[in-house]
Design goal:
- The protein has a seven-stranded parallel sheet with strand order 3-2-1-4-5-6-7, sandwiched between helices.
- It contains seven helices and seven strands, in the order βαβαβαβαβαβααβ.
- The chain has one domain: Rossmann fold (3-Layer(aba) Sandwich), CATH 3.40.50.
- It is α/β, with parallel strands linked by helices.
- The radius of gyration is 17 Å and the shape is globular.
- The longest helix is centred in the middle third of the chain and has 29 residues.
- Helix 1 crosses helix 7, helix 3 runs parallel beside helix 4 and helix 4 runs parallel beside helix 5.
- Bound molecules: NADP nicotinamide-adenine-dinucleotide phosphate (NAP).
- NADP nicotinamide-adenine-dinucleotide phosphate binds next to helix 1 and helix 4.
């Protein structure tokens, strides 16, 4: 498929649903060869078939991004397949909500492991590849929860604030290597993310919060990512915040 990203290779974590799935489809539609990453192999296989049927190019690499070795291997496999990795979209994420007092601390560890450490492992493995090939683009998915912390979002927000800090340093340390860095901060997006919330009070609050507005579609965030990665090489789009019109 030809498009603005013809000849580019893009790896998307969390491609099995929601924002990652929509982003993988949009990247393929722009001509990129896409590496689809998540844990649910059947979902990735289904997405792969849809991309191939439309004339796109893609492979799947089943990976748990909380495992550093698996995440390193994922980057190496992508490079071995197509010789380069031009775009890394660090999108995999989980969200558990609830008050700090009485929280299940296993859920805290899971959010830190996926949302923050997983993103750092993938970035760490991508940098030597991107430096050696003379450039690249890393897109990190944060949240408006990474701009403003509210009750019941303490650790989810903390992981997203951490992503913001990490991304700022990533840009400062690597712009001279022609590595572009973009932080995307979505507001409410209709996906499966909230389905994992286990605390019944927090779940009810989150459902109410979603109902009180018209959430964005995953494709709206994919469009922001496509905007960032299709700019001319001298343009480094550092940060994009996208909220539904009726989100405060
Ligand atoms: N939805 C929103 O309102 C919203 C707002 C702001 C920011 N975000 C952020 O957007 C990103 C995508 O979320 P979404 O809303 O699209 O939710 P989603 O539909 O639940 O997608 C999350 C993705 O992350 C993957 N994932 C989770 N744990 C993983 C792991 N250990 N290793 C590899 N992949 C893993 C899941 O795949 P598997 O389960 O198959 O591994 C899935 O593909 C997240 O970082 C989220 O924090 C979402």
């Amino acid at each position: 498929m030809s498009g603005k990203l013809s000849g580019k290779v893009a790896l998307v974590t969390g491609a099995s649903s929601g924002i990652g799935e929509a982003t993988a489809l949009a990247l393929a539609a722009e001509g990129a060869s896409v590496v689809l990453v998540a844990r649910r192999a059947n979902r990735l296989e289904n997405l792969l078939q849809r991309i191939l049927e439309k004339g796109g190019a893609a492979i799947t690499i089943v990976t748990d991004v909380t495992d550093e070795l698996q995440t390193q291997n994922m980057l190496h496999q992508a490079q071995a397949k197509w010789g380069h990795v031009d775009i890394l979209v660090n999108n995999a994420g989980v969200m558990q909500l609830g008050l700090i007092d009485g929280a299940n601390t296993t859920e805290w560890r899971s959010m830190i492991d996926v949302n923050f450490l997983g993103l750092t492992y993938a970035t760490h493995a991508a940098l030597p590849i991107m430096k050696a090939q003379g450039g690249g683009h890393i897109v990190n998915i944060s949240s408006t929860a990474g701009l403003e912390a509210n009750v019941i979002t303490a650790v989810y927000s903390a992981t997203k604030f951490a992503v913001g800090a990490f991304t700022e340093v990533l840009r400062k340390e690597n712009h001279s290597h022609k590595i572009r860095v973009t932080l995307i901060e979505p507001g409410a997006v209709a996906t499966e993310l909230g389905a994992q919330v286990t605390d019944p009070n927090a779940k009810a609050w989150a459902e109410e919060w979603m109902k009180s507005k018209t959430p964005l579609a995953s494709e709206d965030i994919a469009a922001a990512i496509i905007y960032a990665v299709t700019q001319p090489p001298h343009v480094n789009v550092n940060e994009i915040v996208v909220r539904p019109i009726d989100q405060q």
